[in-house]
């Protein structure tokens, strides 16, 4: 079961990474286009090569239309896509100033409670995303510039958050089993398949 969950978490993280790479490329193209468009409108270029400048502007050299809408939707998906791997490897930030002096049973209890709370929060997020998506579908809301249905971004984020919730539930079950059996089933921070 752990191998399956780890593969699922890695798959989601890979998809999230690919989306981020595409968003970085999109942002780079948009910024470059914006800079070139500004240069083409400058007095220097307009004075030296007005025909070329106008031609380049006419073919569409400029920022990518709606780039921020795509970045907003893509980053939302990527965040949820990285959550499963972070959850299964216990990669969330933690401060262990006081906890370091706790006995081992308290560490197990704290890990169990934390994983249960994380699972509950991930389920709540998924439920709220589903409600939000249904609302966006019902009202037919679209993005401002590109006019794509907003529910598409919600659907992508919902799919990733459901995977995060499933992994969260799995890790909560693992931590409950660890607490009651008094043995470590999945070590914190370990990404190796077991």
Mean pLDDT: 92
> Roughly how much helix do the residues carry, as a percent range?
over 70%
Number of strands: 0
SSE order: HHHHHH
Q: How would you classify the helix and strand content by structural class? A: mainly alpha
SS strand fraction: under 5%
In total, the number of domains comes to 1
How far is it from the N-terminal to the C-terminal residue, by CA? 9 Å
Largest sheet: none
Q: Would you identify the regions where 5 or more consecutive residues have pLDDT less than 50?
A: none
Rg over CA atoms: 23 Å
The tally of helices reads: 6
The global form is elongated
Oligomeric state as shown: single chain
What do these coordinates show?
Helix content is 74%, strand content 0%. It is mostly helical. The chain has one domain. Helix 1 (2-40) runs antiparallel to helix 4, helix 1 packs antiparallel against helix 6 and helix 4 (67-88) runs parallel beside helix 6 (151-181). The longest helix has 39 residues, at 2-40.
Any descriptors?
mainly alpha
Which helices and strands occur, and which strands form pairs?
Layout: H1 2-40, H2 43-48, H3 50-58, H4 67-88, H5 104-139, H6 151-181
Provide a short characterization of the protein structure.
This protein has 194 residues and is mainly alpha-helical. It has one domain (2-181).
């Amino acid at each position: 079961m752990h191998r399956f969950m780890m593969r699922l978490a890695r798959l989601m993280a890979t998809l999230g990474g690919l989306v981020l790479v595409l968003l970085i490329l999109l942002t780079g193209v948009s910024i470059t286009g914006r800079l070139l468009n500004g240069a083409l409108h400058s007095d220097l270029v307009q004075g030296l090569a007005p025909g070329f400048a106008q031609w380049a502007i006419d073919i569409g050299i400029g920022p990518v239309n709606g780039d921020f809408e795509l970045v907003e939707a893509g980053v939302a998906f990527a965040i949820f896509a990285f959550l499963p791997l972070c959850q299964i490897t216990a990669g969330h930030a933690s401060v262990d100033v006081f906890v370091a002096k706790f006995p081992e049973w308290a560490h197990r209890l704290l890990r169990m409670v934390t994983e249960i709370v994380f699972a509950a929060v991930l389920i709540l997020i998924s439920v709220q995303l589903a409600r939000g998506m249904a609302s966006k579908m019902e009202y037919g809301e679209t993005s401002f510039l590109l006019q794509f249905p907003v529910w598409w971004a919600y659907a992508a984020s919902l799919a990733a958050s459901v995977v995060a919730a499933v992994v969260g539930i799995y890790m909560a079950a693992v931590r409950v089993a660890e607490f009651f059996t008094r043995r470590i089933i999945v070590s914190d921070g370990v990404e190796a398949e077991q």
